[in-house]
């Protein structure tokens, strides 16, 4: 086991790295789409409540479990669960391992979509200089690229290598350094896009769609979807934040960092949604085109609109796909770190070897995910969960619906019930906590509100509700 554990060099380093993990395809791809599907307004409000009442307390719980033990998911949960009852250590290790497995699977398919951003970056640069091809259908282009096996493998391989290269250099020299450079760029690009989008004719309608609640449109499913998404978007339920928490030194506050990470992630999800809807509402007939496709907004509707509708679209088009790629990369590195840290801490393997080994093993499954869109063969047609065709959808369904909520449930129990209140209080009230924080309130939310809410997700999933 390593003697001197690598740590974040400052509180800002931790916040940027963890925010980088949280902000990803979930913010740019999933959130706008589910907001669309659930008719905006009321759904957004419910989502904000879920983030504050469930996401924020669990974020604090994960970071504190990591910081206290200075170990990654398996070791940390083993310690946390056995604090009162030593017999529960084994269960803790199992929950940690479940998280590592979730990271493994999630990374294997997340990389494929991340790879698409590279393709669209290259394409949009070409269109910026050569003009958007007259009469080309963006839908056909999308269909051609996803079903081109060789292209898919190359894009995913490129993205995997980028991820491995960062994690290879460790916490402060790799992950933190990249987050410090990329996140400010990401914020800058989003700001430019927001200014451009707010100048479009559809901006007013977009804002009222997103922020004006109409509770008549809210269903039980939308509430559960908002809750399920708050796990995915904040990178909770699988030990990523426990692992990042284990690199926090005693000097840095878990509470402040959690507040900043959760606030930034939520802000970026809302900004991305405002941008996309402003563009979509500005174009007649666009609503119908977007309707049933999860990937439609990001990779079919937008590319075309950059060159026909969006002010400064010729510049913003390529920049947008840089944004998607950067957001995805800071998430994929956190996923690989969960698996690598397990090999380093629990198996005593050196970082470089662990990173390359884990990255290569995960890539084998990325190949399955990359070949899920070819339309033929088992990888495209398998159906384990009803309506989820192909390996990609199967893996996404399993992770989002089953793995993250079950992992999250045990994490709330570990922090709320199995650790002593003295130890959680020591971690959260270390003198650096902000004034708005109230330990008693956190404890109430982590013992009661969060586990009951997550248990509700699990019950509905067992009864067949789908969140992915
Ligand atoms: N939070 C990421 C997103 O919103 O895209 C997804 C994710 C990354 C989940 C890392 C879990 C994780 F460990």
Report on this structure.
The radius of gyration is 21 Å and the shape is globular. It has one domain: Amino acid/polyamine transporter I. It is built from 20 helices and no strands. 76% of the residues lie in helices and 0% in strands. It has helices spanning 11-22, 25-37, 41-69, 73-81, 89-130, 138-147, 149-168, 171-198, 203-211, 220-233, 240-245, 254-281, 286-290, 296-308, 313-347, 351-370, 378-381, 390-418, 421-428, 439-462. By secondary structure, it is an all-alpha fold. Bound molecules: 4-fluoro-L-phenylalanine (PFF). Residues 21-22, 24-27, 103, 106, 232-233, 235, 238, 240, 331, 334-335 line the site of 4-fluoro-L-phenylalanine.
Low-confidence stretches: none
Q: How many beta-strand runs?
A: 0
Class from helix and strand fractions: mainly alpha
State the distance separating the first and last CA atoms: 38 Å
Fraction in helix: over 70%
Name of the CATH class: Mainly Alpha
Ligand kinds: 4-fluoro-L-phenylalanine
Query: What summary fits the major beta sheet?
Result: none
What is CATH's topology name?
Amino acid/polyamine transporter I
Provide the gyration radius in Å: 21 Å
Total DSSP helices? 20
CATH-defined architecture: Up-down Bundle
Give me the strand/helix succession: HHHHHHHHHHHHHHHHHHHH
């Amino acid at each position: 086991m390593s003697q001197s554990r690598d740590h974040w060099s400052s509180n800002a380093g931790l916040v940027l790295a963890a925010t980088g993990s949280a902000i990803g395809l979930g913010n740019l791809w999933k959130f706008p789409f589910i907001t669309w599907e659930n008719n905006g307004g009321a759904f957004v409000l419910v989502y904000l409540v879920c983030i504050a009442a469930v996401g924020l307390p669990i974020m604090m719980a994960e970071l504190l479990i990591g910081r206290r033990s200075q170990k990654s998911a398996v070791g940390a949960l083993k310690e946390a669960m056995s604090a009162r009852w030593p017999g529960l250590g084994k269960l803790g290790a199992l929950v940690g391992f479940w998280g590592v497995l979730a990271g493994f699977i999630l990374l294997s398919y997340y990389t494929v979509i991340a790879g698409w951003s590279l393709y669209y970056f290259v394409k949009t640069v070409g269109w910026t200089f050569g003009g958007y091809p007259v009469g080309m259908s963006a839908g056909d282009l999308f269909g051609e690229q996803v079903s081109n096996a060789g292209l898919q493998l190359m894009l995913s391989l490129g993205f995997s290598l980028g991820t491995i290269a960062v994690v290879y250099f460790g916490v402060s020299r790799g992950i933190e350094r990249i987050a410090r450079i990329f996140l400010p760029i990401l914020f800058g690009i989003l700001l430019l896009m927001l200014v451009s989008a707010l100048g479009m004719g559809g901006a007013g309608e977009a804002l009222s769609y997103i922020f004006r609640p109409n509770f008549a449109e809210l269903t039980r499913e939308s509430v559960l979807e908002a809750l399920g998404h708050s796990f995915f978007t904040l990178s909770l339920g699988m030990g990523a934040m426990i692992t990042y928490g284990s690199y926090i030194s005693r000097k840095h506050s878990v509470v402040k960092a959690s507040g900043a990470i959760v606030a930034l992630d939520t802000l970026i999800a809302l900004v991305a949604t405002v941008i996309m809807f402003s563009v979509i509402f500005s174009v007649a007939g666009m609503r119908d085109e977007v309707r049933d496709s999860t990937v439609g907004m990001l990779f079919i509707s937008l590319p075309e609109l950059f060159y026909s509708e969006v002010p400064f679209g010729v510049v913003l088009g390529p920049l947008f796909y840089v944004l998607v790629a950067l957001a995805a990369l800071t998430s994929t590195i956190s996923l690989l770190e969960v698996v690598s840290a397990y090999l380093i801490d629990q198996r005593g393997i050196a970082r470089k070897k662990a990173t390359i080994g884990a990255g290569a093993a995960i890539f084998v499954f990325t190949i399955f995910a990359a070949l899920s869109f070819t339309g033929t063969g088992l990888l495209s047609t398998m159906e384990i969960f009803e309506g989820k065709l192909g390996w990609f959808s199967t893996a996404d369904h399993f992770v989002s619906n089953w793995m993250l909520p079950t992992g999250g449930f045990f994490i709330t129990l570990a922090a709320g019930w199995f650790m002593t209140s003295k130890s959680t209080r020591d971690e959260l009230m270390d003198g650096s906590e902000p004034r708005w924080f109230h330990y008693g309130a956190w404890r109430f939310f982590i013992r009661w509100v969060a586990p009951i809410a997550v248990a509700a997700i699990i019950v509905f999933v067992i009864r067949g509700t789908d969140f992915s």
